[in-house]
Write a structure and sequence with these properties.
The chain has about 375 residues and is α+β, with helices and mostly antiparallel strands. The protein has helices at about 1-10, 25-45, 55-70, 75-90, 105-170, 175-205, 220-235, 255-270, 325-340, and strands spanning about 215-220, 240, 250, 275-285, 290-295, 345-350, 355-360. The protein folds into three domains: about 1-135, no CATH class; about 140-205, Helix Hairpins, CATH 1.10.287; about 210-365, 2-Layer Sandwich (Heat Shock Protein 90).
Length: about 375
């Protein structure tokens, strides 16, 4: 019953998601076209005694209404109104509803069916065309974003590396110059991470339906690679990796999962404030594997959990504009990547201090949890 009700509601839903459209343009189109059709039929009634043209004119009216309005509602309403108007105004006896006329039920059931089919087909074609146009726009946006991100990545890497070389190789720099250059390097590295996240998003949406090109990877190797990359950026933070003794084979896009792990570790350091230690742990679950990134920082504010992964975190009063920089986009990318892999993502504070963010990925056939237990 719930399924039937949902289908009925969807039938009346327009492209904006409203169940009962009340657009004044839709109603104007409905009344104008129905009025013109009635006027034409009235004029023809005075010229000819035949009324065979009347149903055709009103079928045309239904078609025009379906073409000029949004959703199924107006087309269905026009179909019902056409049947009633043909019977009342243009079928003898005139100006009277008479359903006892010989052949009326079949004739006007056929008219109603034709009108309804025409309205439905036109609306469906319009919706398909809108979906195709939106898909093309999204593809263009993704390609443009991918191209810009690729073009930005190389100079940002060069800028960051050059500033780092100056800081390490020139002892004559004043304290103020060191501070300025360090800030510029940090900003360049932050921009580089944003570009990497944007590239991750385009990789998710690059194929039809957001499909990923996955290969079966050894999870331990992916975790170790991500940890090694992060140690180069933050050598002062201790990073440990714990995995089951038996290898776990997981279907994934390794580059994207490494980006997720890097984002989670970077978030732990940037927003944990006091983070000095990060532990990455993997364990098997029935038919899946869980990976957690836990830190010993200050934890996650209670009010942040609701919007932690949707990219809409707002700055808290009294904080500088860049103090929560990157938190929303980085974690929202993590969620998008994990969900594209068919997994889930969750966050929690731990009793001993700090936060833990875990994600679950489905295991491949070779990594069945019945064979390997951590």
């Amino acid at each position: 019953m719930k399924y039937v009700l949902k289908k009925i509601k969807d039938f009346f839903r327009n492209s904006d998601g409203n169940y009962f459209p009340i657009s004044w343009k839709g109603w104007l189109s409905f009344f104008v076209i129905m009025g013109v059709s009635s006027t034409v039929c009235s004029l023809l009634k005075n010229i000819t005694t035949s009324d065979t043209h009347v149903p055709l004119i009103f079928v045309m009216a239904v078609l025009l209404i379906a073409l000029t309005t949004d959703g199924y509602f107006y087309g269905l309403l026009a179909s019902l109104a056409s049947v009633v108007m043909v019977n009342y105004a243009f079928t003898f006896p005139y100006n009277k509803l008479d359903y006892s006329i010989y052949g009326y039920p079949l004739t006007f059931f056929t008219m109603f069916s034709v009108s309804l089919v025409v309205s439905t087909m036109v609306t469906r074609v319009k919706n398909q065309e809108k979906a195709r146009i939106e898909s093309e726009k999204e593809k263009i946006r993704a390609n443009l974003l991918r191209a810009i991100s690729h073009d930005l990545r190389t100079p940002l890497t060069s800028i960051s590396g050059s500033i780092g070389a100056v800081l390490e190789g020139d002892d004559r720099l004043s304290e103020n110059s060191v501070e300025l250059l360090t800030g510029a390097r940090d900003d360049a590295e932050w921009l580089h991470r944003m570009v990497e996240n944007l590239l991750s998003v385009t990789r998710i949406g690059g194929d039809k339906g957001g499909a990923l090109h996955t290969e079966t990877e050894v999870l331990e190797e992916v975790l170790a690679e991500a940890a090694a990359t992060f140690r180069k950026r933050s050598p002062e933070v201790e990073v440990t990796v714990s995995v089951p003794e038996e290898p776990l084979f997981v279907p994934m896009d390794a580059m994207l999962i490494e980006q997720v792990l890097f984002n989670l570790m970077d978030n732990a350091v940037t927003h944990g404030k006091t983070t000095t230690r990060i532990s990455i742990a993997a364990k098997t679950l029935p038919g899946s594997v869980s990976v957690s990134v836990q830190d010993n920082g200050r934890g996650i504010d209670a009010g942040a959990f609701e919007h932690l992964f949707d990219g809409s975190l707002q700055l808290q009063p009294g904080k500088e504009a860049d103090s929560t920089r990157g938190m929303g986009i980085g974690l929202s990318v993590c969620k998008a990547v994990i969900e594209a892999h068919g997994g889930t993502l969750a966050a929690a504070n731990v009793p001993e201090g700090g936060a833990r963010i875990s994600f679950v990925l489905p295991l491949g056939e070779e990594g069945n949890s019945d064979d390997y237990q951590g």
